[in-house]
Amino acid sequence: MEGLKKRVADLFPQMVEWRRDFHQHPELSFQEQQTQRKLIDFMESCGLEVKTGWGGYGVTGLLQGAAPGPTIALRADMDALPIQDEKTASYRSQVTGVMHACGHDGHMTMLMGAARLLTEMRDRLAGNVLFLFQHAEELLPGGARQMIEAGVLEGVDAIFGIHLWTPHPVGTISLCSGELMAAADSFEVEIIGKGGHGGLPHEATDAVVIAAHVITHLQTIISRQVDPLDSGVISVGAIEGGNAFNVIAERCRMKGTVRSFNKGVREALAKRVEEVVRHTCHMFGADYRFQYGWGYPPLINHEKETQQLIEVARQVGTVQEMKPIMGGEDFAYYLEQIPGAFCFVGAGNPDKGITAPHHHPRFDIDEEALKVGTELFVRLIAERLGR
Known about the structure:
Helix content is 35%, strand content 28%. The protein has 387 residues and is of the alpha/beta class. The radius of gyration is 24 Å and the shape is elongated. The termini are close together.
């Protein structure tokens, strides 16, 4: 791999152009038509075997090495978020109310860079590389699940993915074996009481008071009903009830999220959330409606592939062991099917003012991180398939 850093540096100006074009023209989940078209054109220019029809706008390109061997997939997600871009940068989003606020523009760019460089190395590869550009990571049911159901992993021996991460500085690569990201589920509750005059509460069934009890009791599930050595989070993020200061609300609605790593804990939490709602409403003589949404499963890195990724990452940047986080990611579906690993590449830089968190209106990345991710992908394939 002598000279790889120089080849990545030479390609960097082109990568910046790719990334900024994606950033200026973002597309929401399940709407990535023009993004797909750009990726198709690019992969065809590289001589890859391009395939669509993966249950959405996802697209793959297959690079066949000069000798037989395993097939390794590299994945990048494609979709943007329904957020108004508030940056003043020249490359800010040109689409009102839509922006790449989670780095997916950079993910595509790094995979394109890897595709360009690995195509030049075809004669030195014993095996195949599947460049997997996935639609709709940000919105359930998620593009990964659709692509798997369409057969995208057939014949694939392992898969790897990268997420740019502004909380970590450029030059760092963070990961761990085992649990890395949580299952991300959701729930919606409507409490149905009996409205009445604010001065006559005994003649009403106050849905807001019942909701307050539900929220308080939900917080005891983790602290008193989950093994302290396991992890879990229950958060109520939205509540709405009533519309007048002197009227007791008949109805109150709330929405929340449930995060966990362990399958047994995940199933138990779903059951207990509904039980808390049911019993609390029964205690006050109210009715309720309850809906539970099963989100992405926990992302569990495979030990062998994680160690391989760590060994390669040490040649590229500073490796950090990462503590598991409660964010969700549909790359988890791939890891339920085949071996693989997922890591975070630092993209923050306070000196450049790049500090906004993900999903923020002023989110941006230090584009130097594109070099790190691209080199990591290329070195990983050279390690796995080089001859």
